[in-house]
Design a protein that fits this description.
295 residues; alpha/beta; TIM Barrel; eight-stranded parallel barrel; 13 helices; disordered N terminus; metal ion binding; lyase; lyase activity; Pyrv/PenolPyrv_kinase-like_dom; HpcH-HpaI_aldolase
Amino acid sequence: MVDNTEQTSTAPSATRRRYMKATGAVAVGALASSAVAADGRTDPSTFSDEFLEAVENGEPVYGVSASLAGMDPVTVTSHVDTDWIWIDTEHAAYDVREVREMMSVIPEDTAGITRVPGAHPKEVERVLDAGSDGVIVPKLRTVEEVEEFVASAYYPPKGDRGVAGSPASTFGLEFDEEYMQTANENVFVVIQVETAELVDNIDRVAQIEGIDSLLIGPADLSSQLGDPLNTDTAEFQRAVDRVRRAAERNDIAPGYWIGLDDAEPFVEEGWQVLSLGSDAALLAQAVQERIDDSP
């Protein structure tokens, strides 16, 4: 959990560290052809300080959604200047073992955050136990659903995440009160705003302790508002503005899935946690641009 109430004036260095996990040691050229050794991501002290500091400083952080099969795309997209990788278990065909493998190839200065299919506590606990730095949940509608989801991301007494020592023991770590406290301090919790009902409840939702970002999902939200994929309507713009203002009032980072759109207007409006689209869409765009530029 990021404490957004204390901002610092020191920005992270422009020179970003790029290296593999010490025990993950998979070269970008070889990628998933090698077996992935267990890495340190289940140790909460290894969570990305750079990502958390950037969010606390009010800086924009740029992420890419993983949707292509295998670890190669995640390795490639996390070793450029991405701040976070979004592992999508809602729509992509990933299981929890693949989530763990993907986390093992993401460098330490990049956050690996998993979108779970729904708010069931066991979905949340499994991806966190697999080494995710945070969780994103889609399509919630009520304050009660959000409260249940947030609680499942934190160990007691702050929440009611299941207390299981096996993930820590796998890496030779001691599962104790300090471990749980460190995990609570570092986990990044994102509520994806995709329903009209959640927009209606957003002022109450934004007051729930433990939320780090409210992130707009424009495709689903526009569809729920009755005009699918049209983000130019007055109703959609009012909803989006209401979410951003609620986030800012409660020291929560406002987020937006901007896809292939230009990021600059979103940053100027104050959006901070930004998804630049999926690896599949970015690959298709790059190939098409290369073809268009060819004689």
